[in-house]
Amino acid sequence: MEKKKMKIDHVIFWPPLLLISILCALIIKDPKRANEISNSALSWTTDKLGWAFEWYVVILFLIAMYLIFGKLKDKKFGEGEPEFKTSTWLGMIFTSTSSAALIYWATIEWFYYMQSPPFGAQPFSVEAAQWASCYGMYHWGLIPTAMYVVVGVAIGYNFFVKKRDVVKPSSVCGILGKHKDGLTGKIIDILYIVGMVAGVGTSLGLGTPLVAELLSKIFGVQHTLSLDGWILIAWIVLFSTSVYLGLQKGIKVLSDIRVYLAFGVIIFVAVFGPTAFILNGFTDALGTMLHNITRMTLYTDPYGKSGFPQGWTIFYWAWFLNCVITYSIYLVRISKGRTVRQFASAVLGAIVLGEMVFFAVFTNHAMYVHYQGLLDIGKIMEQSGAARAIVEIWATLPLSTVVLPVLLLYAFISTATFINGVAYTLAMVTTKGITENDEPSRLNRVVWAVLLGTLAISLLMLGGLKPLQTASVLGGLPMMIVCIIIPISFFKEVNKTGWVMKAPSNKDAE
Prior knowledge:
By secondary structure, the chain is an all-alpha fold. It is built from 18 helices and two strands. The longest helix has 39 residues. The radius of gyration is 22 Å and the shape is globular.
């Protein structure tokens, strides 16, 4: 059978590609001016629209609860038995949380909160420490994870029940009617690409300096912007080579290795680190979070104007929004044969548990280092940045000469597989007439990988955390629109036609 030739969808491919390329060029040309515009855009968006992000996440959490307890709870994703046994399935969801960005923030996020705590607490006070210990778990926990549940159920319904090719977001925006196949649908897909690239740029902007600092610590090389650039080039070359040599199975093996490395380090730190402090700290943080979760969820600080919810909570909601469709598709694909309640409960339970484990171990180890006076973390951050502080915190672990290379391997592989997955998704969305069983062209995938690397370098040139926050928040705005249309379309169709399985066609049965 002749291989189907994949053609680029020029209407979707070129606008975001040119927009992001021009943005990168302007940043590289005048980083100072770009930084000023970036800061202004971030301040305006989070100040004027922060409430919208917060209410959006709250509403999706309430919808997730309805999906668990409401009339759709026993509806199934497809017919027949589940594809994976329950323990394997839960394990796949649990390990999907392990990323370089997660261990980055689990190690250092608390210190930002100690420096500039919420709710008027004094910096580095006991109250500040209590907020710092729990806010990371909150930001990566139950409330935002509901986004994956709601969007995931909508996508699962379209994929398993209605047998639609869920390649592009526009395909699950039924409320648009015939317009979803026209210009409006194209705009939806373009917004998705822009948001996704912004979210990925943030992830690479965090992961690249971390790998560079690990290399610097282990091998004694100086961390410069050029080193960041070479690391990104290495990732892109690895990805491009795997595409052209057909080494996708090799990338999958690397992804599995990443999971084993991550949880191996977690177990090592929990057992050989300050175990009692970790368990006490986690228990206290969990109590603080559960006691204050409503206040934390609706905190906008219009009177004190500390900027805390804008700089953190809203940043996180926007960042997660950028990735929610892609991640939801993955979670749905491995959930064939499951009911809505099983899917929603598993996603909320396994993801939250996975992320809480990371924060319990890495955050409390880092706080132990601070309280024992083993490092002047604030001074290191001021002089060399957060990535260096993270590496120095890890260097206080027992057998650090072994642990640091393991973490380097983990961070490098984690980001390489991440670029691979995102570039593949972007190439799928920008290919004309593609279905689930087709592969986008190699050139298309490589183009997106190169663009992602260029954007990451541009954001690194701006320096600091704010450009990364700006990229996520501005990208999250269009994604919020897309992720409002998808659930509305789903509920409208279910209410009209019911959860009725479409009879498989010859194409579906292939």
